[in-house]
Amino acid sequence: MISASLIKELREKTGAGMLDCKKALEENDGDLNKATDWLREKGISKAMKKADRVAAEGVSAILTEGNEAVIIEMNSETDFVAKNDKFLDLVDTILKTLIKTDVKSLDEALEVSTDKGTINDLIVSNTATIGEKLSLRRFARVTKSDSDSFGQYIHMGGKIGVLIVTEGTNEECAREIAMHAAAMRPKYVRISDVPKDEEERERKVLTEQAMNEGKPEEIAKKMVEGRIKKFYKEICLEEQPFVKDGDITVKAFASNNGGSIKEMYRFEVGEGIEKKEENFAEEVAKQMK
Fold first, then answer.
1. Are residues 31 and 87 part of one domain?
2. What are phi and psi of 214, to 5 degrees?
3. Is the same domain home to 93 and 135?
4. In total, how many domains does the chain have?
5. Contact, 265 vs 142, CB < 8 A?
6. Which residue among 9, 106, 127, 180 is the one 20 to 30 A from 189 at the CA level?
């Protein structure tokens, strides 16, 4: 009988999936070193060697089924692999698996079972097969009511994915709002969603700017309030001028279509990841050594 602790130790050592580790230990009578070599021979543990690489390419993808939806960002090291059929099949499997669950955290999502092991097992296996580091970076699992609508939009072949939930509008209106969000990059839906510390930090910077311009205190205060409103228009979806009609806000567009915006999920691939810049010729030369 192979203990769970031994499987865990081998998994941490090699980066291989749980089922692969269990099989390796069974094939080698529980010998950790032999099991490690067995995984290496099978090419399974090579995924571990890629763990420190930067995976900043990939796709955002969305799946909706009735009142359920899931949006994910799946990363790879290169854009070439992001278009690979194996990679896209993996993305499809993860979407179809997660939409049937109620998991909230990424750790929980990685442990969800498929017919070929956990989602993490699938990612490790595909990392070994495809030859690049792959990772599920983030996801959101969303449930709406019958009176709500999903609006989804995928831009540039998956470079940006937006999922919008509206109340009272139709799907077409929700999709128009999703397209706007893809283009205009709002961070929040409404002013009340902006964290207080972020607003205070911006207000402090704007106050310093006004004072440095030599304005009297009362004038400076009015300037700051005006600039704060502009700040909200830049980062809040509801406050932004609608991209197809700059005379109205996105909030007004939703209202004119009989409803309001409830939620927004906007995943831009590689957002916030520091990408490693490499000379392509040098990279090819490294691979040929």
1. no
2. 80, 20
3. yes
4. 2
5. yes
6. 106
Residues 62 and 106 in one domain: yes
Residues comprising the chain, all counted: 289
pLDDT in tens, the chain (289 residues): 888 888 888 877 777 778 888 899 999 999 988 888 788 767 665 555 555 566 789 999 999 999 999 999 999 999 999 999 999 999 999 999 999 999 999 999 999 999 889 999 999 889 888 888 899 999 999 999 999 999 999 999 999 999 999 999 999 999 999 999 999 999 999 999 999 999 998 998 888 888 888 888 888 889 999 999 999 999 999 999 999 999 999 999 999 999 999 999 999 999 987 665 554 455 445 544 4
How would you class 268 by CB atoms within 10 Å of its CB: exposed for 0-12, middle for 13-18, buried for 19 or more? middle
Domain limits for position 90: 53-143
Distance in angstroms (rounded) separating the CA atoms of residues 159 and 9 = 36
Three-point CA angle 181, 183, 188, nearest 5°: 35
State whether 131 and 66 are in the same domain: yes
Q: Is 264 a domain residue?
A: no
Token pair belonging to 212: 């440095």
Q: Which of 16, 32, 50 is a domain's end point? A: 50
Closest Cα partner for 44 from 74, 24, 26?
A: 24
The verdict on 8 and 43 lying in the same domain is yes
